[in-house]
Design brief:
Blueprint lengths: L2 E5 L9 H10 L4 E6 L11 H13 L6 E4 L12 H21 L3 E4 L17 H13 L2 H7 L2 E5 L9 H9 L6 E6 L9 H8 L3 E6 L1 E2 L9 E2 L8 H10 L5 E4 L11 H13 L8
Parallel strand pairs: 1-2, 1-10, 2-3, 3-4, 4-5, 5-6, 6-7, 7-10
Antiparallel strand pairs: 8-9
Helix pairs in contact: 6-7, 7-8
């Protein structure tokens, strides 16, 4: 059975973990996706005690933490031409895997660097072949850590002008020859360049976790991201494709940006839409 989760970035910045967990549970979610930060209880230097306190709060609310993202990925791309940035990125990924294991998460979300990124001002433009080589080298350096902690690396398809086809993503993953390297598939991110149901079938068992978003193609910019069921994602086809490949893990709502007013309502609206998408609730007519 597909499980229902929510990502912490759907909440306003500064929301405490306690409030986040309380609202997520009240909205009907079974899991929540947290993130590695530079500072704080899930930070680069946080103690195991700090991390376990966050886990206990989630456990007490009946929420699972099965995937773990990172606030540090875009600022430290593994494709950077700067060797120090790449070395830092590798260090951060290893830390992300370690914290994930303490939280009992089985997958981390990895942004695989970029060739170019339009939403970060003055970001470096990287030659595609160099990006491919650097990404492969950096991920290769953390596969042993993933296998040690038994936490999978989920490479996400993002707006990075890199790994832009389903078959390229599949082949890139297969080059590592490890069950601990797979796909963190984002349904909404792929709409501007393809069809998520097709990507799901191509990636198949490589998919470790799934993000739910929605997007309107006619907008063509970041402003095209909208509430679930308000965009062009063919969710009936997406769910059918997930069932076809035997995926029965978490689908996590990653709703960005949050609402300007009555911000927490996005959590409840996302939960209600996911109930329809996942077949948990049907209309009476």
């Amino acid at each position: 059975m597909l499980k229902k989760g929510i990502n912490l970035w759907a909440f306003p910045a500064g929301t405490s973990y306690k409030d986040m967990f309380t609202i997520a549970k009240d909205a009907g979610f079974e899991g929540i996706e947290l993130s590695l930060t530079e500072e704080g209880p899930l930070g680069l230097k946080s103690s195991e005690k700090d991390i376990l306190e966050v886990k206990k709060m989630a456990d007490d609310m009946g929420l699972q933490i099965k995937s773990f993202a990172s606030d540090l990925a875009w600022g430290n791309p593994i494709t950077s031409s700067d060797e120090k940035i790449r070395d830092d990125a590798v260090s951060y990924i290893k830390r992300q895997l370690e914290v994930a294991s303490i939280l009992n998460a089985d997958t981390i979300l990895l942004v695989p660097g970029y060739v170019g990124v339009d939403f970060i001002p003055n970001s470096e433009v990287i030659y595609y072949e160099d990006a491919y080589k650097r990404a492969k080298e950096c991920i290769s350096k953390v596969v042993d850590t993933a296998e040690k902690f038994k936490v999978a690396i989920g490479i996400e398809n993002v707006w990075n002008k890199f790994l832009i086809s389903a078959m390229e993503m599949r082949n890139f993953i297969d080059e590592f020859n490890s069950d601990y390297v797979g796909s963190y598939f984002d349904v909404g991110n792929v709409i501007y360049m393809g069809y998520p149901e097709q990507w799901i079938k191509v990636l198949g068992k490589r998919i470790k976790k799934v993000h739910f978003k929605d997007y309107r193609r006619e907008v063509g910019t970041l402003s095209g991201f909208v509430d679930l069921l308000a965009g062009d994602v063919n969710y009936p086809a997406v769910v059918e494709a997930l069932k076809e490949i035997g995926y029965d893990d978490f689908c996590t709502g990653e709703m960005i940006p949050a609402y300007k007013y009555y911000t927490y309502q996005i959590i409840y609206n996302t939960s209600a839409s996911m109930d329809i998408i996942l077949g948990r609730k049907k209309f009476p007519c």
